[in-house]
Queue: 4 jobs
Job 1
Amino acid sequence: MRWFEAVPALAAASFTGFMLLYMGYPLFVLLFLPGRFRTWSPPRRGRAVAAFVANEVLVVTSLFVQDTISAVVDAANSGELAAILAFGVFLSILAFSFFYLIIGAALVLVAAERGRASRKGRKFWTSLQFLYLPFCVFFIHRRIRRLIRDFKDGDPLAVNLSMEKLELERQESRHLSLLLTEQPGWEEFELYATEVLRRLDGRVLERSTAITAHLWKVEIETVPLLLVYEDLPNRVNLESDSYPGDILLKKLQTRLAPAS
C-alpha cells in the first residue's frame, strides 16, 4: 500500500482516538461524581455507559461507511421517506448521546460543588467548558481536584450540610420563613451559614449578634433576606420581609430538597 492510500485510515484512526478521549472524560465524571460530595442524585452509570457506547459506535461506523451515508443523504434529499427516517434516527441518536454526556457531566460537576441549589448560569458555563473540552480540560480537572481536596480536609459540618427540615412558616409580618435545620449550635453557626451562602451564591451584607441569636442580613439572587440562628429553640432560618423574598424562599425550598 502506498503512503497516500493509508492517509484516510490514519485519519479515521486518529479521529476515533480523539473521540474516545473527548467523550471519555464526561463519562469519567458521570461515573465518578454522582452519589459523592454534594450530589444528592443517585448515579445512573448504565445510562452514561450506554450513551458513550452509542456515540462511539455511530461515530466510528460513519467513518467507514461514508459511501453508504452519502447514498442515504442523496436519497433523503430526493424525498425518499425511508432514507429521511433512517438519517433522522441516526442524527438524533448521535446528538442525544453526545449532549447527554456533555450536559450530564456539567450538571453533575456543578451539583458536586454546590449542591442542588446551583444557579443556571454556572451550569451553562460548565456545559460550555465540556463542549470545548480540549481547551478547558485543565480547568475542569482542577475543579475536580479541588473538590476532592476540600472534602478530604474539610470540616464535616460543611461537607454534610444539614437541611433536614426545609419547612415554610408564616411570620407575624405575614411574610415567609424557611426553617433549614435544627442541628448546628451557637458555635457552629458561622461555618454553617458561610457554607449555605457559598452554595447559594449569596453574600453577607451585615452581621449582628444578640444574646440568643445570630442575625445576618444576606443577599441571594439580588433579593435581601435574613439568615437567623435562634438559641431557644435551636434552629436556623432564612427569613423574608418582602414578596420577592417570599417567592425566592418557595423556590429554595424546592431546590434544596433532596432528590427522591
Job 2
Amino acid sequence: MAIKNVVYNFGRLNVMAIFEDKSAFLLASLRSGRTLPSGKHHFGFFEINEIDVEGEEYIHGYLVKFRPTTSEEVAVPKTQQLELEEIENRTVAKSSFFLHIHSGLIAYTTTNAHIDSDVFRRLFAKLIELANDNFFVSAEVNSVEERQQIFEAIKQLSRVKKVFLFLHPSNPGDSPIWRGYDERLKRLEASGYSEYYKAKEGSSGFNIVEDKEVVSKITMADDGYGEAKIEGEREGGETIYLSTKDSPIKAVVPKDESSLEDILKKLIRTFRRISTRIKNDEESQR
C-alpha cells in the first residue's frame, strides 16, 4: 500500500505592530476566539498549542472553515423516518500550520476545494488583525520561494519588458543582500514600497540579472517580504509572465506521522534550510 503524504507550503508571517513580547502577542492573537464571516461560512483559529522542538519555539494550530448552522438528514431507527437535524458549527475544512515564533516562518497545509494557498495566507493575516481590533496592527503572509528558480526563469527570457516590485519591512530579517533597503524602509516607518520599470518601445529590454539593485529587491521579495512580477518575451515573441510567488518552497510529510512533534521534526529541516539561506547570504557578502 502506498504511503499517503501531506504537503506543507512555506511562507512568512509579517506583522507590523507594537508589542514587547512577540510570543505572547502571537499566542494572544491566535487564541482570541474571533472568527471571520465569509459567505455562509466562518473562519477561525482552533487548537492552538506551543511546541518546543530542539530548542526552537513553534506554535501549532488549525485554520478552520466551518458553517455556524446547517441542516442534515438523519435516520431515526425508532420511527423509521428520515428527519432534518440542525447541526451547529460543522467543520467544513481545516489547514494545519506550524509557526516559528522568532522568524515568522510558517508551514501550512491546504485543501483544494476550500482552503487554497491564497485563501490561507489572506485569511490568516486578516484574523491576526481582527484579533487586535485592526488597531495599529497590519499583518501579511507571503510565500517563501525557491530563490534560484525565478532567476533561472528570467535568464530564459530574450527580452524583459516590465518589472514591478512591492516590498515591505522585514519582521525580523537580516539578509545582507537586501539589508540596506530593509533598514531604509524601517527608518522611514514605511509599511510598503513599490517600483515599476517599463522598457522603451523597440529597445532590447532590461538586463535584470546584471543589475545589483534590482536583484537585491527581487531576492527580498523571494524571501517573503513582498512580491516581484516580471513581464518578458521568449524567442519568437511569446509573452511570459513571472512572479516570485510561482515556485513556493514545499515539504512532504507522511500522513501517518503519530504526533505533532514527529511532523515538526520532518518540517524543521526545511525551516532550517530557509534560515541557512540567509546565513549563506551573510557569508557571501563578506
Job 3
Amino acid sequence: MNDYKGVLVPKSAKTIIRLAGSDPYQAELASLLGEAVETAGAQRTLEEERVDAPMPIRLFTGTKVTGVVGTVPRGLESAVSEALSRLEVRGQKQRIPARVVQSRHGLRVELLMGETR
C-alpha cells in the first residue's frame, strides 16, 4: 500500500498489481502473451463485497473475454475497486490495462494500476 496515496490513487504511473493464483491458467495466458489486454467485468456488488472471497479477474483482448486468469491478492481488492470507480466517474470503460509477463514461476498477469490515476 506504500505505492498509493490519498484514496488509493497510485503514486506512480508504474504502479502494478501482480495477480495471484495464475498457475492453473498457463495455457490461456500463453495465448495472450504479447497481446494488449484489459480486465473484463465491472465492480463487485455490495453482496460480493460482504463475502470474504477472492476477486477473480478475466481479461478482454478486444475481441473476446477469457476465463478467470488469476485473483487479486488479499488486501488489494479495495485498490482495484477504487480504480474501477475512478474510471466510471470519468466516463471511461471500467477496464484496467493489463499485461501478461513471463516470470521465473511461469506466466503472470500484471494490472497496470498506474494507468488509472
Job 4
Amino acid sequence: MRAVLEPANLCAIRCWLMARLPWPSDIDADPAQLRQHLFHEAEGIEALPSQTLIEEAEREAQRDPHRSERLLTWSWRNEVIRLSDFGTWHTVGDALPREACRRSAVEAAAFLRKFPDGLPGPQGPDRQARYLTHVSKIRKLAKSSDLLRSVPLLSILAAERDQRGREECEALRFSCEDGSHRAIAMALAGHETISAWIAY
C-alpha cells in the first residue's frame, strides 16, 4: 500500500467516491432535501483518512486497473473546462449509441434532445429500455445541475493524455475518466463549462 499521495490525487479519489454514491430514490421531489443529502455525503468523504482513500483506489484495480493507476500515480489538476472540449465514454453506460458519443458532451446532449423517447431505427426492447433508463438519469441530473455545480466533490474526472474509451471517436482535448452522465446533463441544462479534475 502506498503511504503517501499528493493532495491532488486524494481530491480526485474523493470525487470518484462521491460520484459512486447512489441518490435515495425518494429524494428527487425536494431540492432542499437533495442539497442536504449531497453536502452531508460530501462531508463524510472529506473526513475519510488518506489511507482509506488509497485503499479504495487500490481496490479499484480489481475492476479497472487503468483508473486505479491514474488515481494513484498520475498528476492531477483542477480547472473549469469547456464541455465542447470534453469527450464522453464512447457508449455511455453501454446505453447510448456511438453516434451520440462520437463528439463532445454538447453533441451527446443534442442527440438526447433529438431522440428523447427512444433510439431511432429498429432496436431490441432491452437496448431501448437501457437507453431510456440512462436518458432518465441524465435528465434528472440536468434538472439539478445548479445544485451539482455547487458541490466541489461532484467535479468530473478527465484525462488529457493517453485517452481511453474514445475508440473511433473524434479527438478532443479531454476524455472522460469518470462523469459522462454529469457532463451530458450539464450540456442538456445549457451550461457550457464544468469543473474537472484532470489527469495529465
